[in-house]
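> example.struct
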């Protein structure tokens, strides 16, 4: 499938990760990507790192693009969409990765019948290991969905869901990498208190999280079964897990994801 030119409106972390992942996968060539960003230093960095074209004008980026990927922060979405009103044509596919911004809001603000697909990616897309979840706007057709899946599948695994579930998706996979990084941080700090040197503790926690994640990704067995396999009765792992259970770690995660989901809903209402 020929994707044509892709405009990235916003060249921040997630926009850069998606563009880099597409290039790494060979899905598109650098000449097919145009990134617009108000930050000149960021534009220069992307030009140097990825070889893509950049500029400060969103309308110029969209002008000849088949696909427009909105990578701005939720708080910036309304002025960006207002600036693109009348500049986006119904033939162009609009993909949004902004947390909490509903497809109906994008459609209404653009003021035309352009197909809109909302996506919640996450930053491992930079290494083609992203969790990419999408839902369709009311004007998106099967061909638009196929186009979007082609892009998303090049940087990770892809799932489709209903828009009403996107806040929960955001809380889990969108914010999830930060939870894992925080886990690695906590493991390292705890090990240092047990006497391990800082560098050693950080490297060991990093590799442990990486290896466990790889096992989880490669195995067809559920996480609970993998956990049981490394938990010997009366052993060291069981002693640690008993502490986590007493401290109600599961409930802590439930509250944490609920907070993230509520924040996503607030962004939508705002």
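> example.seq
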């Amino acid at each position: 499938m020929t994707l044509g030119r892709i405009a990235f409106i916003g060249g921040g972390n997630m926009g850069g990760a998606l563009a880099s992942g597409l290039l790494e996968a060979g899905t598109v060539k650098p000449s097919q990507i145009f990134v617009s960003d108000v930050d000149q230093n960021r534009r220069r960095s992307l030009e140097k790192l990825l070889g893509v074209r950049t500029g400060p004008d969103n309308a110029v980026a969209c002008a000849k693009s088949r696909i427009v990927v909105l990578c701005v922060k939720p708080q910036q979405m309304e002025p960006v969409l207002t600036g693109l009103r009348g500049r986006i044509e119904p033939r162009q596919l609009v993909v949004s990765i902004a947390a909490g911004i509903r497809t109906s809001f994008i459609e209404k603000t653009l003021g035309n019948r352009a197909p809109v697909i909302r996506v919640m990616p996450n930053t491992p897309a930079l290494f083609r290991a992203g969790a990419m979840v999408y839902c369709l706007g009311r004007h998106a057709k099967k061909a638009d969905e196929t186009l979007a899946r082609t892009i998303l599948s090049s940087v990770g695994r892809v799932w489709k869901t209903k828009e009403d579930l996107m806040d929960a998706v955001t809380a889990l996979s969108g914010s999830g990498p930060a939870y894992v990084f925080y886990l690695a941080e906590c493991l390292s700090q705890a090990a240092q208190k047990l006497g391990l040197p800082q560098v050693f503790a950080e490297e060991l926690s990093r590799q442990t999280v990486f290896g466990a994640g790889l096992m989880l990704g490669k195995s067809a067995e559920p996480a609970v079964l993998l956990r049981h396999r490394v938990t010997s009765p009366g052993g060291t792992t069981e002693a640690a897990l008993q502490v986590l259970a007493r401290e109600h770690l599961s409930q802590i995660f439930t509250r944490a994801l609920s907070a993230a989901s509520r924040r996503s809903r607030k962004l939508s209402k705002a």
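> remarks
Residues 46 and 95 are 20 Å apart (CA to CA).
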